[in-house]
């Protein structure tokens, strides 16, 4: 069991050898995400005091009004990774197309691409409710020495080499995996360092929390409606407790610690659901599976879905294994 007082920096170096491509490049990349997270955390913590809340005045490719903090976080993560010359491409919720990052020697020597949701839970920024950042990392599939292409980004989630999130909540935590379990680090703001506070995080196989925006209930598929009724039934250890923060990162984090299920199903309003496969569902699915949980679109394992577009959406069910399997059972038995 890793030493509990270890800093994130120490943990990254110490665990580099457990990663199959131990060139140090991925370690430097995660370190740069750590740095950008601290910079963004500084702004998030004083949202309301400084001119960082409210709409930025533009809409992103998904037609959503960009919040000032969406744009700020997007800039900080992209700048930090670009300056450190460790990625060959970045895709972001806030960028229409992927960005080619060229190594200083101008011949595309870097091996990793990053997909990022710079600020998750944007609707909660102005109301002082926890928000997050989500990242997903792949090794490029196109040859080193050539510019990245869309092919490097449209990889199945089961090809991720690392994924994680930052939650800016009652404390700020960075939680990530490189395919060898999930570890959580809490920022000590006085010292400015992340410390290993949650080693080897695991989803309880069962839980009593369900997280879904019930305001969309009438639009949900029959299987989801029936599963929600099952959660609310007076039987065995039910009814479950309904908890929905409206920030995927925060709902996921709570459910991973306490046991629970998060659902953003398709609906007549959102025929493919709302969440984005590449920089929301795939990274959370990788973390869930590495923490003994499960993630699907109700039928297919999220990480086996072949992406076709950078900003595509998928229905998302994720959390404690037995709860996700129960929801899938309701979906299978109530096909419309
Ligand atoms: O308000 P709704 O429709 O329930 O959607 C909430 C969901 O949308 C999101 O805010 C989408 O993420 P962004 O804020 O990054 O766009 C999730 O974090 C959250 O779970
Ligand atoms: Mg998001
Ligand atoms: Mg976002």
UniProtKB/TrEMBL annotation:
UniProt: substrate binding residues: 120-123, 213, 244, 274
Entry's family note: Belongs to the FBPase class 1 family.
Oligomer status and interactors: Homotetramer.
Reactions catalysed: beta-D-fructose 1,6-bisphosphate + H2O = beta-D-fructose 6-phosphate + phosphate
Subcellular location: Cytoplasm
Gene source species: Winogradskyella endarachnes
Pathway assigned in UniProt: Carbohydrate biosynthesis; Calvin cycle
EC class of the enzyme, as a word: hydrolase
Residues covered by the Fructose-1-6-bisphosphatase class I N-terminal domain: 7-199
Binding site for Mg(2+) 2: 117, 120, 280
Protein name per UniProt: Fructose-1,6-bisphosphatase class 1
Cofactor note: Binds 2 magnesium ions per subunit.
A single cellular component GO annotation: cytosol
InterPro entries in the cross-refs: FBPase_C_dom (IPR044015), FBPase_class-1 (IPR000146), FBPase_N (IPR033391), FBPtase (IPR028343), Fructose_bisphosphatase_AS (IPR020548)
GO molecular function annotations of the record: fructose 1,6-bisphosphate 1-phosphatase activity; magnesium ion binding
EC number annotated for this UniProt entry: 3.1.3.11
């Amino acid at each position: 069991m890793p030493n509990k007082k270890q800093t994130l920096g120490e943990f990254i170096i110490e665990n580099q050898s457990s990663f199959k491509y131990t060139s140090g490049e991925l370690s430097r990349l995660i370190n740069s995400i750590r740095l950008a997270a601290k910079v963004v955390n500084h702004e998030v913590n004083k949202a309301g005091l400084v001119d960082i809340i409210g709409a930025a005045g533009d809409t992103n490719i998904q037609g959503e009004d960009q919040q000032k903090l969406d744009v700020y976080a997007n800039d900080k993560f992209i700048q930090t990774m670009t300056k450190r010359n460790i990625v060959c491409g970045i895709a972001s919720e806030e960028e229409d197309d992927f960005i080619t990052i060229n190594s200083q020697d101008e011949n595309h020597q870097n091996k990793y691409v990053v997909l990022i949701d710079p600020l998750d839970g944007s609707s909660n920024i102005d109301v002082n409710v926890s928000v997050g950042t989500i990242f997903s990392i792949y090794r490029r599939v196109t040859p080193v020495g050539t510019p990245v292409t869309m092919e490097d980004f449209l990889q199945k989630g089961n090809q991720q080499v690392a994924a994680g999130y930052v939650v800016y909540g009652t404390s700020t935590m960075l939680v990530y995996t490189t395919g060898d379990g999930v570890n959580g680090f809490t920022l000590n703001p006085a010292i400015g360092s992340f410390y290993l506070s949650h080693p080897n995080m695991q989803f309880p196989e069962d839980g009593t929390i369900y997280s879904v925006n019930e305001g969309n209930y009438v639009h949900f598929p029959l299987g989801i409606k029936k599963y929600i009724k099952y959660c609310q039934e007076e039987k065995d250890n039910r009814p479950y407790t309904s908890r929905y923060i409206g920030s995927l990162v925060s709902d996921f984090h709570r459910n991973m610690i306490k046991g629970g299920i998060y659902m953003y199903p398709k609906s007549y309003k959102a025929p493919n659901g709302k969440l984005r496969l590449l920089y929301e569902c795939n990274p959370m699915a990788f973390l869930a599976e590495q923490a003994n949980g499960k993630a699907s679109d109700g039928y297919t394992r999220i990480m086996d879905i072949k992406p076709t577009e950078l900003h595509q959406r998928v229905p998302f069910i994720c959390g404690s294994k037995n709860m996700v399997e129960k929801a899938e059972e309701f979906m299978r038995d109530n096909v419309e």
